[in-house]
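Standup notes, structure subgroup. Blocker cleared on the MRU input:
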Amino acid sequence: MTTPNPNLDSIRAVQWQGDHLRLLDQRLLPAEERWIECRDAQQVTQAIRDLAVRGAPAIGIAAAWGVAMAAQQKVDLDPVLSTLRAARPTAVNLMWALDRMKKRIASGADAPGLVREAQAIQDEDLAANRRMGELGASLIAAHSGVLTHCNTGSLATAGYGTALGVIRAGVAGGRIDQVYAGETRPWQQGARLTMWELVRDGIPAKLIADSAASHLMKSGAVQWVIVGADRIAANGDTANKIGTYQLAIAAKYHGVKFMVVAPSSTVDMATGTGEDIEIELRDATELLSTAGQRTVVDGAQAWNPVFDVTPAELIDAIVTERGVIERPNSIAMQAMFGW
Ligand code: MRU
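Run returned:
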């Protein structure tokens, strides 16, 4: 086993520059590390819509900086708040961050106050990820193999990552010997982004086709599936990247444990069950072409929901910075998050 370098969690994809926001363009990775300079809230909104910045926590953090920047520019904040809120529908971190900024605005905060609030949102996310890393890793037996889906690392957060944070902590603690990452079609967050982070950190990782997951589980090579979340309902049902639900079904069938890792900013106690979560439908071209190259016959149609919902009963543990909920249900969620 190679000795991963725990200090190599160096990626920070969302960087405030004092008067504008710098974003690492995640559409171009790993081939190119290009930064986008967002100089107003509209450019931040577009970057969220186009997935130049993506991942629930990172979307919320970027939006908070969009509001702070708009305040510095003395523009009317109400249209800014509603435009950012409409950028993408499923990840509740976006609405959570905007509600927090709105509350500060209502309490009379000026532009420097809103900059401090956005910074606090970013700093708290990093601290939460480190805490969840410890909590989640402690559930994993030594020398385990794990499978993850999508990208939940430093690129998708303020740093360190949620599910990928548990994986970083698990590898550093000798609990995880091998990581498998699903490519996560059609946008390939696993193949392009997760593998990029893991290889940079020297973490032993193998890419698999999404359709190879059940076969991998049957082989006994993995003991846990570890994923992130975009919205966790009051009963524990969890929305995450499309393909997560079928991983949970296969895990249950093969006796593989299923862990969801997400900060409390992803918990939406106002949404009763997974049935109430809006699932984003994106353009069919994302499915009909790869890297901008059309790969399917002209005239073909496609259906491209980019998230799905895993029912609570298929989840063994929800790990948040406030603690772990084993076998989540409404009562357990209420106990930890109240409402
Ligand atoms: O469409 P994306 O790339 O924004 O989807 C991201 C995911 O589904 C992640 O698993 C989730 O946002 C958690 S990121 C820490």
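Discussed briefly. Residues 54-57, 91, 150, 152, 156-157, 162, 189, 228-230, 240-241, 306 surround MRU (CB under 6 Å).
Next: hand off to the docking folks.
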